[in-house]
């Protein structure tokens, strides 16, 4: 079993989602995420401790998901795809939402994080070990971010009442640290739908644009592909004791 990473209180929240209305990677919108499962916890005890020190007073706790969190995480994800992304449940896109244990808890190099506030799961975020697929994505984008060496960030969703507290930003940092510790990842990738309010400026503040499909002939899928820098986690392990 993967050991549960410690509590990571967070001090702020952000925009609704990092993923698009449809996960145009070919495996479904916002699919990567951690939850308690089998395999070693490759992600972040240190990140958990640091966040815990920084944010406990805010009442937000960012941590690795456990099996007990799956119902709450699923509710956040489904509410987001219905109310914010307007896609509703689409089996080929959202299989990971229905079975997050198989998608994120069992694979050793995948993870699902949750933010808990007063006993309620209010935000989610995940890493999966698959890059964007072609079709529907441009071949050169898929070639640049191959599965296995690409950590794809997905399902970064925050409930509306808890946005504007920096939760998504802290989630992204923690997911990046997980990817570094997991080993074997050479890139952090994500895509977003600029039609989602706040999504494009949020990701532009953190990541570098790789391809804006709106500039392609016919407008492509209308999404933007981004690459995030791999975080420097030097010294964090000493914080974990």
From TrEMBL:
<keyword id="KW-0808">Transferase</keyword>
<feature type="region of interest" description="Disordered">
    <location>
        <begin position="1"/>
        <end position="45"/>
    </location>
</feature>
<protein>
    <submittedName>
        <fullName>GNAT family N-acetyltransferase</fullName>
    </submittedName>
</protein>
<dbReference type="InterPro" id="IPR050769">
    <property type="entry name" value="NAT_camello-type"/>
</dbReference>
<dbReference type="InterPro" id="IPR016181">
    <property type="entry name" value="Acyl_CoA_acyltransferase"/>
</dbReference>
<feature type="compositionally biased region" description="Low complexity">
    <location>
        <begin position="1"/>
        <end position="26"/>
    </location>
</feature>
<feature type="domain" description="N-acetyltransferase">
    <location>
        <begin position="60"/>
        <end position="233"/>
    </location>
</feature>
<feature type="compositionally biased region" description="Low complexity">
    <location>
        <begin position="35"/>
        <end position="45"/>
    </location>
</feature>
<dbReference type="InterPro" id="IPR000182">
    <property type="entry name" value="GNAT_dom"/>
</dbReference>
<dbReference type="Pfam" id="PF00583">
    <property type="entry name" value="Acetyltransf_1"/>
</dbReference>
<dbReference type="GO" id="GO:0016740">
    <property type="term" value="F:transferase activity"/>
</dbReference>
